Amino acid sequence: MAFSAPLSSSICFHTTPSPSFSSTTIPKLTTTTWPRRLPAPPAAIPPLAADVDGTTIAVIGGGSVAALAAVLSLADPERRRRLQAEEVGGGDKEVVREYFNNSGFQRWKKIYGDTDDVNRVQRDIRLGHSKTVENVLKMLADEGPLSGVTVCDAGCGTGSLSIPLAKEGAIVSASDISASMVAEAEKNAREELSGKDNLSVVPVLPKFEVKDLESLDGKYDTVVCLDVLIHYPQSKADGMIAHLASLAENRLILSFAPKTFYYNLLKRVGELFPGPSKATRAYLHAEADVERALQKVGWRIRKRGLITTQFYFARLVEAVPA
Q1: b or e along 251-280 (b: 16 or more beta carbons within 10 Å of the residue's beta carbon)?
Q2: Of 140, 124, 168, 177, which Cα lies nearest the Cα of 3?
Q3: CA pair distance 42, 257, nearest whole angstrom
Q4: Residue 285 gets which letter from DSSP?
Q5: For residue 97, is it within any domain?
Q6: Contact 321, 298 (CB under 8 A)
Q7: In a domain, 83, yes or no
Q8: Number of domains, the chain
Q9: pTM
Q10: Containing domain of residue 188, as a range?
Q11: Residues 281-302, mean pLDDT to the nearest whole number
Q12: Residues paired with residue 301 on neighbouring β-strands, in sequence order
């Protein structure tokens, strides 16, 4: 799942070495530049409200921070989340599973797909997600051909990364907590990979399974987990990062919604406008916290980048054994 916000900026990917570690420079991608401007005024909120859930943040004017503080103090998103959890008989994980097997599946299937039946917010999130996938493929290809390389796609969604990896010859094990997502990914993979004679390598169909991150096992050259940490608070994300690292032999690639004052404020605003569908809880993560979690298990960040569009932002990091 992607995280989004009303931020207008260029889509960019770059390498910023950590002060403590050396880093391999990635050539900066040439991408479409969106004109930088202030977010839309508060009047833009009502038309977007129907598009907003826990990962699609409402637009707020830059001059409304003072008034917003009072509104946020009266909001009670935690009560809404408790009610969601009670309905499905569990906590965050059960809410996520329920959402992505039902209304969330229908929503994100459209965003990840190529249908024209999307609004401007969903179309922009689609662009942001596709840029994330594009950058991951570039990271992997920079190390050489992918033919025969084993990759674990943890949280595969509808197969937007698994399928292009298979086209490059990678041996992909893909999983998702949602049975609906896995079924869609399998269908998409068979349509795009079976009987294709025009590919440079003969693709192996990815192995798709319904699993949460905690249930993943095995060993892979590379583990990729895109836009999934948003469902984990930092206290649990540390353990999940350690678990994913234990599955990877050479590389671990993560994307997450970065925690900054501005993005955190926008997230709080979005909680006031949950939209008509049930939303999952969204957790932002400071890059320093993710880096510390990796260091604890003997890994270091080698490459890092930021992907932003008008309604999508994600920090992308590649870690390797220290």
Answers
A1: bbbbbbbbbeeebebbbbbbbbbbbeebbb
A2: 124
A3: 23
A4: B
A5: yes
A6: yes
A7: no
A8: 1
A9: 0.74
A10: 91-321
A11: 95
A12: 319
